[in-house]
Specification:
Layout: H1 2-8, H2 16-37, H3 47-65, H4 70-93, H5 95-102, E1 106-110, E2 113-114, H6 116-122, H7 126-136, E3 145-150, E4 156-160
Helix pairs in contact: 2-3, 2-4, 3-4, 4-5
Length: 161
């Protein structure tokens, strides 16, 4: 027990070695939690995925710096990951839950016209949309574009005619 105390310390007065040892352990635990959470946590970047990324990082960092006790941090982090996993699973089988958590895609452009009302709703301007069209469709010519959407994860995608 004395060895564990010497290696990981206690409270906020930690040495460089103790914080480094905590960081290594938290890194391994975070990797395990991310694997439990699933690939989508760092892939899709929906609101649900952003929440787990931000909150998990904030909570785990408390264990590294000694701001909170180690085991409660691990327990709460595991709980967060399991909630994320449960909601993500629920979104696959219940579209209504996906709409509540991630919203709907927003149609920004159709039949050669920008839809101003939807652009306001998405808080995006024409130049930002055109920049995304240049990047994704590799064109500046909207004549060949049928529709442009803002997806649930915030990306702007176009559908060619």
């Amino acid at each position: 027990m004395h060895l564990i105390y010497e290696l990981f310390g206690e409270g906020k007065n930690l040495t460089i070695l103790q914080m480094t040892a905590r960081a290594v352990v938290i890194f391994v635990i975070a990797l395990i939690l991310i694997r439990i959470s699933g690939r989508r946590s760092f892939g899709l970047h929906t609101p649900l995925d952003n929440i787990i990324t931000i909150v998990l990082g904030a909570v785990l960092s408390r264990a590294i710096v000694g701001a909170s006790d180690f085991l409660p941090v691990i327990a709460s982090s595991t709980t967060l990951v399991l909630i994320h996993r449960f909601l993500a699973y629920g979104m696959v089988y219940h579209p209504w839950l996906a709409r509540i958590i991630s919203g709907e895609k927003i149609l920004l452009f159709k039949d050669g016209n920008f839809i101003e009302r939807n652009m306001d709703k998405a808080q995006i301007g024409r130049e930002e949309i055109l920049a995304e069209v240049r990047k994704t469709a590799l064109t500046e010519d909207l004549v060949g574009i049928e529709k442009i959407y803002m997806e649930r994860n915030g990306e702007v995608n176009s559908v060619k005619k």
